[in-house]
Amino acid sequence: MPSVCLYALGAAIVAALVTNLLVPPIARLAVALGAFDEPDSRKLQPEAKPRLGGIAILAGLASAAGAVAVTQWGAWGGSIRRGELLALMCGGALVFLVGVVDDLSGVSTAKKFLIELVAAGLLVWAGWSFHVLRLPLVGAIDLGVFAGPVSVLWIVGVTNAINLIDGLDGLAGGVVAIIATSMLGYAALQANPGTVVLMAATAGACLGFLRHNWEPARIFMGDSGALTLGFLLAAMTVHSAIKAPAAVAILVPILALGVPVMDTLLVMAVRFLNQEHSRLATRFLGMFSADRNHLHHLLTHFGGKRSRIVGVIYGLVGAFCAMALVVAVTGQNSLGIVLLVVEFLVVLGMRRMGLAMQVRRLARQRREEIKSEVLGLAEPAAAPTMARVRSFRR
């Protein structure tokens, strides 16, 4: 295993260097093609920024992981079959390409979901799927024929959760790097060298990109980056769950990805409940509409530098990724369930704090508006009185 760690370190360094070097020319290409991320009611950046940063990320990741795979396939090839690798590459390519097209000209939500379903279906077809769920007070549930649909739902859900967290400078890249590092440790515990190197390259590529994406960002990764990174994380969590002991097979990846996934689920629930007088189909489609109700949006109501908000979310994700590794090492199913509940309550509590601060700010803003309106009405009435005073003095 020491040699695997050296290869993983080398993959991370190469991925970081290649990504870092490619970002400037990719940014110029994005400007030439008009691929800009424009500010709107949902996005927080003050001005348009070039995207397509995902091309640099994938190039760095693929070059590093590919070089190790070519040199070590004979020794490590048994950890993943050729059919599985082909499914991962084809699925990742599909998600990446739809992301590039979306960054360049836009793709409808329905078409993106369709491509993501196809990509996830390829992995399930190759044998990557959850088979057993362990629930508190219920025990083990054999998914049977539902194993495939549940796995597809997980892969598509995680893919979009990572995409949706890409709302502040440096947020998505740092969160993915933290989660990838924890999955690297999980794969090392399983003696799974292929996943170790891939997650190391993923973390390295994200860190190389962060140099250009930290506040104030000079480029965004766009859907080409966020969707691809989300798909890779989702795929490798499923693969790791297959090789893990049954007691913690699903708990570890859910804990590691819990912050973005739970936040996304809570946002979708709020969207559904806020349309109580609409038709069921309308309420369902409304769950996928864009808004500013994600955790990082709500935390901006506390004010201060946005880089501090990013740091807080880094700390939150890092803490639960560390707990996921503790569950993996101890193999304690009950501990994992307790930590999942704690993670959900923490995310819910932080969201409620952000909402409360938003309400206070809106109330304060409304009071200022009313005060301005009252003063504005009072000024015309006061003018004749002052005129009469001046006349009397004369």
Strand order in the largest sheet: 1-2
Mean pLDDT reading:
85
| Largest sheet, strands/sense/barrel | 2 strands, antiparallel
Tell the overall outline. globular
What would you note in describing this structure?
Helix content is 75%, strand content 3%. With 394 residues, the chain is mainly alpha-helical. Strands 1-2 form a two-stranded antiparallel sheet. A two-stranded antiparallel sheet has the order 3-4. The longest helix has 61 residues, at 333-393. The N and C termini lie far apart (98 Å). 45% of the residues are buried. The model has no long low-confidence stretch (mean pLDDT 85).
Brief overview, please?
The protein has about 400 residues and is mainly alpha-helical. Helix content is about 75%, strand content about 5%.
What's the helix and strand layout?
Layout (H helix, E strand, L loop, with lengths): L1 H32 L2 E2 L11 E2 L2 H24 L5 H23 L4 H17 L6 E4 L3 E4 L4 H18 L6 H19 L3 H21 L8 H22 L7 H6 L1 H16 L6 H7 L8 H5 L6 H25 L2 H61 L1
Helix pairs in contact: 1-2, 1-7, 2-7, 2-8, 3-4, 3-8, 4-5, 5-8, 5-10, 6-7, 6-8, 6-13, 10-14, 13-14
Keywords, separated by commas or semicolons:
two-stranded antiparallel sheet, mainly alpha, 394 residues
